[in-house]
Write a structure and sequence with these properties.
The protein is mainly β and 372 residues long. It is built from five helices and 18 strands. This is Polygalacturonase.
Length: 372
């Protein structure tokens, strides 16, 4: 499938209510190439067939400031349940690639997503204000975040109040010149919680793991567990940013401070890393219970860690971590272990099935606790 290159062939639709405007420009936005809303039981799949967004002309319009509306993703599904996107190659998206928003029970697997590493904002997979999402076994090389979780922007996300939760990410390999392998935010005003990412390999990239937020966002990022990550030739291995300051308009509440807590990062190995970590909270709003363990990074910088306004613990971290996180957890001090899921996750499980088996009958097996 090859998209049209004339912008008039891409319909213009309303802004997402949790964003209040187009992500790039005030007002409306272009509809994605593959679009649906209020759907149930959706399968988008193929024998590794290719969907080409022919995004180069859109990237030129972006760089030349000649866009009339925010660029379109390749795939966007809204308010939909039981969605499978699998066994396809997506190339040259004008904007984000895969964007399930206000969705639940989403399985994304066996995708290849490609765009030039210089292409602007070509995020790979962006679950947004969505729940019970499994992303697995994908290769992504693009110009922005490889997998990024979102949940609305400033006052619009706070008001819409639709969080992203119960998200599993595993077996992802990728490269991005401009951003992160696994990212949360910066649009996180509806809240992000109960995220588990494992088996991640990131090469030749700016960031390995990143959380992005700012005053005015409100919301929260909590109960995040990232483990078994391999990094090679990455500028900053771990970054938590409290000053990512893009806002939709001047009406955001500067006193709406985000809560960042219960973040566990463990079993991380990195070679040819420039800086181990930059962990920077917000004045009057320190980020809490940040736990790092079994981290081994080969770092070029003589100042490997930069930490401010963060609290937490560490164990077996090399190079030695900043003083704020240098204490091991004591009695009553517990790092998030990745297993504190809602009650639904504790229900009896059917026998574990392979990815191939799940695809034969995807709606039978598409659930958060079977994607774990």
């Amino acid at each position: 499938m090859i998209s049209q290159m004339d912008s008039s062939d891409w319909p213009v639709i309303d802004a997402l209510p949790s964003y209040g405007r187009g992500r790039e420009l005030p007002g409306k936005r272009h509809q994605s190439l593959i679009f649906g809303s209020n759907l149930t039981d959706v399968i988008i799949t193929g024998a590794n067939g290719t969907i080409d967004g022919q995004g180069a002309i859109w990237w030129d319009w972006f760089h030349n400031h000649t866009l009339n509306y925010t660029r379109p993703p390749l795939v966007e599904l809204m308010y939909s349940t039981r969605v499978v996107i699998s066994n396809l190659t997506f190339t040259n998206s004008p904007f984000w690639n895969i964007h399930p928003v206000y969705c639940s029970q989403v399985l994304v697997q066996h995708l290849t997503i490609l765009a030039p590493i210089s292409s602007p904002n070509t995020d790979g997979i962006d679950p947004d204000s969505s729940t019970n999402v499994c992303i697995e076994d994908c290769y992504i090389r693009n110009g922005d975040d490889i997998v990024v979780i979102k949940s609305g922007w400033d006052e619009y996300g706070i008001s819409f109040a639709h969080p992203s939760s119960n998200i599993s990410i595993r077996n992802i390999t990728g490269q991005t010149r401009n951003s992160a392998g696994i990212a949360l935010g910066s649009e996180m005003s509806g809240g992000i919680s109960d995220v588990r990412a494992e088996g991640i390999r990131i090469v030749n990239s700016v960031h390995g793991i990143r959380i992005k937020t700012a005053p005015g966002r409100g919301g929260y990022v909590k109960n995040v567990y990232v483990a078994d990550v391999s990094l090679e030739n990455v500028s900053i291995a771990i970054r938590i940013t409290g000053n990512y300051g893009e806002h939709p308009d001047e009406n955001y509440n500067k006193n709406a401070l985000p809560t960042i807590s219960n973040i566990t990062i463990k079993n991380i190995v990195g070679v040819n890393i420039s800086v181990a970590g930059m962990l920077q909270g917000i004045q009057g709003d320190p980020f809490s219970n940040i736990c790092l363990s079994n981290v081994s990074l080969s770092v070029r910088s003589t100042n490997p860690w930069n930490c401010s306004l963060v609290e937490g613990y560490s164990n077996s971290v090399l190079p030695e971590i900043c003083e704020q996180l240098r204490t091991s957890p004591g009695p009553g001090q517990v790092c998030y272990d990745g297993n504190s899921y809602p009650a639904a996750a504790a229900q009896p499980q059917s026998p574990q099935k392979s990815s191939a088996s799940r695809l034969l009958n995807p709606f039978l097996y598409i659930s958060w606790f079977l994607c774990r």
